[in-house]
Amino acid sequence: MSGDDELEGSDEKDLREHFAPVARSLRRAVTSRTIQVYTIAFVGVVVLAASIGPTIVGGYALVQEDFGLCSDPSIEVLSPEDTEAVDAGAEPPEFERLDFAELTTAEQRAFRAALDETSNEHPIEGENVEHLAAFREGVLVEDQGTEHYVTITSSNECVPAGAVRFPLSVAGLLIGSGMIVAPELQRRFGRTGEQYR
Amino acid sequence: MSEVLVGIAAVGFVLAVLVWRIHANRKTAPPAPPQPDGGERERRERDPRRSAKRSDGGYLPENPTTEAGTETEEKSAGLARWLTTVDHKDIGIMYIVFGAIAGLWGGTDAMMIRTELLTPEADLWTAGTYNALFTTHGLTMLILFVTPVFFGLANYFLPILIGADDLAFPRLNALGFWLLPPALIFIRGGLVINVFAKFLAVWVPADAIDFLFAIQPPEIGWYMYAPLSLQSGNPQVDFLLLGLHLSGIATVLASINFIVTVFAERDEEVSWADIDLFTWTLVTTAGIALLAFSLLGSAILMLLLDRNFGTTFFALEGGGPILWQHIFWFWGHPEVYIIVLPGFGLMSTILPKFAGRTLFGRKYVIYSTFAIGVLSFGVWAHHMFSTGIDPRIRASFMAVSLAIAIPSAIKEFNWITTIWKGRVRLTAPMIFCIGGLSTFVIGGITGVFLASIPVDLLYHDTYYVVGHFHMILMGIIPFMMMAASYYWFPILTERMYDQPLARFQAVLMVVGVIVTFGAMLITGALGLPRRYASYPAEFAPLMEITTIGAYVIGISVLLWVWNMLKSYFWGSRITEADVWDLKEVGQFTREWQHFEEQLRERYAADGSGEQAEGLRTSPDEQGESNSTREGAK
To answer: Which of A90, A104, B14, B140 has its CA 20 to 30 A from that of B379?
Structure first.
């Protein structure tokens, strides 16, 4: 700031007087018991909100594999008629072609099961998934003379478990909840309760 | 053979119940109608003004063998009351409770969506579950939450505001409400059936209940675009369409009722010029709904026929998938105004009460409501700018879409001007009004950008669109519903709510909405497409902020539920009607006068003459008379 811009003498006094009511009301607001209580509760809600997600995701990460909730990608196998529709048009898309025999045992099992399902979907159960990349792009599988379009409908990837995420977020939940209820508890049970009732 | 026996038994059971009911009715029938000796019935007939004005209300003819005639004196008690009532207040409360439950369910969907989006990969729910979540979230909020809650408020307050005894057709009103629970089951049943099947499979062989597993939550988006909606093999899609059809019929029935009530059942003292803003918006809403929902019904039937009977209305070889988009959005965009106009009405009703001034430019607010009603049918193709439709058609829809911002801006201007130099009281309803004004400005301006074809082509199907419409909808719909729930809480329950908690909840809600949907606007402006369960990792910080904001909204809603329940059971009792000091600012409107009358009758009937006397004192004297009222401030 240049020297010309600095306020001196009566100008500074005028400015102070002009903003005195604003400063007063700001001071009153900051020292107000009500505002303090609202602020503590508000910060508590923000801490709580920031902790809910990591708690759910962190907790889920701990149990997902034990309950078999991830790692088996689901495939969809279209009927020959629907496959024709996918592969139709003036410029049909270029799909990789596979023979049923080329699929691994787990992929074959999922292929057959998906054809039996009403939804035409089934997860590939087991470790042996060789053609995941092809399924992700969409592939035409020939089985007993007919072609079926096969694609991944859900990768079912596992949530990466963070070592400290879950305990930290649980602590956040407790702290946040505590900050929300603390003013009310103090009002009800605290010694100073009567003062600001 | 066994099916025949079961059928005969069922018919026999129904007949036996009917015979028993007729017999019971005869035994408990009210006494014969009074003779023409000055009784109530005769007096009505002698009074040509009343008898000419009074509708039959959809009641059965007075007949001592039924308990449904106009001579029925008292409501049934307990569950029977709620199952058989045709009273507009009861049905209003049932609508509100139903809508609130549906809203909480739809809100849970939203929280699940945001939880999935905490991580870039689709690793919490499957991609299919995510698709189902955003489908059911949209449908539940639009169809089962917003309209029922606003229609509930309309049921309760519209007759009071226009001085009518009830809605014009009470039985039609009850029918309209009772179509909604089956609609909810049809629309949301996929999840329930799926969970039920999994429980059942513990005891029953899975092969025997294979058909139950086939019913999955629909994954086709709330807009049900063809060809996906035609090709989906999920039978739940058909149930969803039937549920939507039922809810559409319910909306049409209610709309007819509101329109007829306002035109034919108004008190003589209430002229068109006196009608309040909430009623004006309801009449306009009902008019739009009448046209829009009838069309939706036809579209749904065509889609059902395409799916099940081989017709080709929306198939490639017939009308084509774009035809579905045209018809859907011809309903869909007016639907946006069907759900926001009552919110506008509530804003115009509530805001002046706490600004200490009457609404600025009342006449222009009413005209702008009509303008929105008319223009709402001329903007549907702006949802389809990127489908390759004729550029000349696109340009005309861009012009109308820009034009529809004008009546909305007129409203905004009038609301802000009403606050200007007013004596503003920051009660919870007023915080919601000011919050709603703020988010409506952000949502409205981002909408004007979207109405421009080049900008729309850039932002179409990104989070920008989601941020834009949620800024508008959240600020006008839940904000105004909650504002109304606080403002009219004393009338609805004769108790006062926890005001500090309500103020805190209102601030949280406003902050949560601005953070959540502000972050979405930025995410969309950076180009992230919506409706995907996974996204590039560089968007993770913005998505986390959005999710935290969403949880703040969730916590705020739970606080509202807690406040409503706590105050309903344990709130301080209201003994004086003017809890908001509306007499001082000359805005002690009809619903409050009705409430005052109700309280006066209540205390007079209780024999509490002192209190009844107190209620008859002048507003100034009343101001100092009651501690409950002080507490309410």
So the answer is: B140
Could B504 and A74 be called an inter-chain contact, meaning their C-beta atoms sit closer than 8 Å? no
Q: Roughly what angle, to the nearest 10 degrees, separates helices B321-355 and B428-451? A: 140
Contact between residue B60 and residue B169 where contact means Cβ atoms under 8 Å apart: no
Indicate the DSSP class of residue B31.
P
CA distance B52 to B322: 51
| Nearest-CA distance B547 → chain A (Å) | 8
B190, HSE (Cβ side, Cα atoms, 13 Å): 23
Between CA B563 and CA B88 the distance in angstroms is: 25
Nearest CA in chain B to A54: B118
Strand order from edge to edge, sheet including A146-154: A96-99, A139-143, A146-154, A74-77, A121-123
Residue of A46, A153, A160 with shortest CB distance to B552 = A46
Question: pLDDT digits over A155-182, tens only?
Answer: 888 888 776 678 889 999 999 999 998 8
The residues near B157 (Cβ < 8 Å, ≥ 6 apart) are: B92, B278, B488, B591
pLDDT (tens digit per residue) in B473-520? 999 999 999 999 999 999 999 999 999 999 999 999 999 999 999 999
Structure tokens at A85: 């529709």
pLDDT digits (tens, 9 = 90+) for B318-342: 999 999 999 999 999 999 999 999 9
* B340 φ/ψ angles, rounded to the nearest 5 degrees: -95, -25
Which residues face B14 on adjacent strands? none
**Does residue B52 sit in helix, strand or coil?**
helix
CB atoms within 10 A of CB B189: 18
Q: Are B168 and B256 a contacting pair, CB within 8 Å? A: no
> Are A74 and B555 a contacting pair at CB < 8 A?
no
All residues of chain B having their beta carbon less than 8 Å from the beta carbon of residue A116 are: none
Q: How many CB atoms lie within 10 A of CB B556?
A: 23
User: Is the link from the previous residue into B227 a cis peptide, with omega within 30 of 0?
Assistant: yes
Looking only at the bridges linking them, the beta strands covering A139-143 and A74-77 are unpaired
For residues B486 and B257, give the distance between their C-alpha atoms in angstroms, rounded to a whole number: 27
Q: B549 contacts in A (CB within 8 Å)? A: 49
pLDDT at A127 over 80: no
**How many whole angstroms separate alpha carbon B496 and alpha carbon B567?**
6
Residues 203-262 of B with CB under 8 A from A: 213-214, 216, 231, 233-235
Q: What pLDDT, on a 0 to 100 scale, did the predictor assign at position A20?
A: 83
Predicted pLDDT of residue B171: 95
B231: which chain A residues are within 8 Å (Cβ-Cβ)?
82
Q: What SS3 state is found at A154?
A: strand
Q: Which two tokens stand for residue B240?
A: 């969803």
List Cβ neighbours of B544 (8 Å cut-off, separation of 6 or more). Answer: A53, B118
**In whole angstroms, how large is the CA radius of gyration of chain A?**
32
Q: What confidence tens digit (pLDDT) does each residue in B384-403 have?
A: 999 999 999 999 999 999 99
pTM for this entry:
0.83
- The closest CB to that of A155, out of B119, B122, B552, belongs to B122
pLDDT in tens, B235-279: 999 999 999 999 999 999 999 999 999 999 999 989 999 999 999
* A57–B124 CB contact, under 8 Å: yes
pLDDT reading at B616 higher than 80: no
Structure tokens at B301: 């039937």
Closest by Cβ to B123, choosing from A42, A54, A159? A159
Contact present, A75 and A121 (Cβ < 8 Å)? yes
**Cα(B564)–Cα(B482) distance, integer angstroms:** 10
B508 and chain A in contact, CB less than 8 A: yes
Of all residues in chain B, the percent with pLDDT exceeding 90 is 73
C-alpha B160 chain-centroid distance: 19
Residues B597-610 have a mean pLDDT of 73
